[in-house]
Amino acid sequence: MSLIQSILMGLIQGLTEFLPVSSSGHLAIFKILFHVETDTGILFDVLLHVGTLAAVFVVYYKDIIRLIAEFVKMVIDVVLNFILFIRNISGKESVRYHRIIRNSYRKFVLLIIIATIPTGIIGFVGRDLVTAASEILLVPGICLLITAVLLVISDRVRDGHKKPRDITNTNAFVIGICQGLATLPGLSRSGTTIAACVISGFDRKFAVKYSFILSIPAILGALVLQLKELGSVSLAPMEIRNYLVGMAVAAGVGYICIKTMLVVVRKKKFTYFAIYCLAVGALSVGGYFFV
Ligand SMILES: CC(C)=CCC/C(C)=C/CC/C(C)=C/CC/C(C)=C\CC/C(C)=C/CC/C(C)=C\CC/C(C)=C/CC/C(C)=C\CC/C(C)=C/CC/C(C)=C\CC/C(C)=C\COP(=O)(O)OP(=O)(O)O
């Protein structure tokens, strides 16, 4: 992979990650059309996602700090309740257990953990399929057409008002399944998860926040899996430089675009991106059969 190719892929990632058009689908199409050679599978795709993850942290840092703090307190409460449970067995005293989910941020933490489980299982089981699918133009083409349909549906769903306290564990689990399926190139992770949220009656602004914060464990988990797959493969210094430059470009451009997405979803403009996904998907399918 050349430096210019890594810069262009970083640009593509930054421009598409926070728009519901599947950045991994665009990266797959770019690599196929421009014969980008790499012997590390989709490691660079995942690293570019880590690059744009920086934008998520910058935009949602207050929520993330609060989520981490509440996660730590929840763990402490679980441990304390376990100790109280053991002491209660010995009959020493009647105990009052600590409530674990005692505020909306703790429910938010629970919703992230519940959604991450199916994402992790699907992502782990399907990781080789995802790598293979990224090399066949037909797959991102068809998946972009599916994304287009989901986006049209989500724009026509009545505005919901659900926030963490109203959201069920089943809602979170289903959204985690959608996110896991979105590892397929062309299925937009943000598009499918936000569509699943609004169809489930979520408040739109919370749907976007939940989708983007939910991407943190998904992308970090994908990175862990990809680095494990790297195994004994050693990266040349030039390749490491290209990877880092691509990640930096993705992070910078991603920060600019994430603000656009927040406006797009609030104004229910997914249909424009559906038309775009329809066009790129049709061209990719056509290109597969006729080129
Ligand atoms: C249950 C569990 C492990 C919970 C962890 C989370 C946790 C501890 C939460 C507590 C609350 C809290 C603090 C939340 C805030 C989040 C935070 C700040 C920190 C959490 C960090 C953490 C502890 C992470 C641990 C993650 C981990 C190591 C394992 C989790 C298991 C897991 C989710 C594995 C990932 C499997 C996977 C998604 C893919 C494997 C196959 C693969 C390599 C595919 C590549 C796909 C790709 C290119 C990128 C991944 C993004 C994606 C899902 C799709 C891409 O979509 P696309 O680009 O097409 O769409 P758009 O651009 O969006 O349109």
UniProtKB/TrEMBL annotation:
Domain of life the protein comes from: Bacteria
Gene that this sequence comes from: uppP
Keywords: Antibiotic resistance, Cell membrane, Cell shape, Cell wall biogenesis/degradation, Hydrolase, Membrane, Peptidoglycan synthesis, Transmembrane, Transmembrane helix
EC numbers on record: 3.6.1.27
Catalysed conversion reaction: di-trans,octa-cis-undecaprenyl diphosphate + H2O = di-trans,octa-cis-undecaprenyl phosphate + phosphate + H(+)
Protein name per the record: Undecaprenyl-diphosphatase
Family to which the UniProt record says this protein belongs: Belongs to the UppP family.
Its membrane topology: Multi-pass membrane protein
Entry's transmembrane regions: 42-61, 67-87, 108-126, 132-153, 210-228, 240-258, 270-290
Misc note: Bacitracin is thought to be involved in the inhibition of peptidoglycan synthesis by sequestering undecaprenyl diphosphate, thereby reducing the pool of lipid carrier available.
Native source species: Brotonthovivens ammoniilytica
InterPro entries linked: UppP
Pfam family, one: BacA
Compartments where located: Cell membrane
Record's function text: Catalyzes the dephosphorylation of undecaprenyl diphosphate (UPP). Confers resistance to bacitracin.
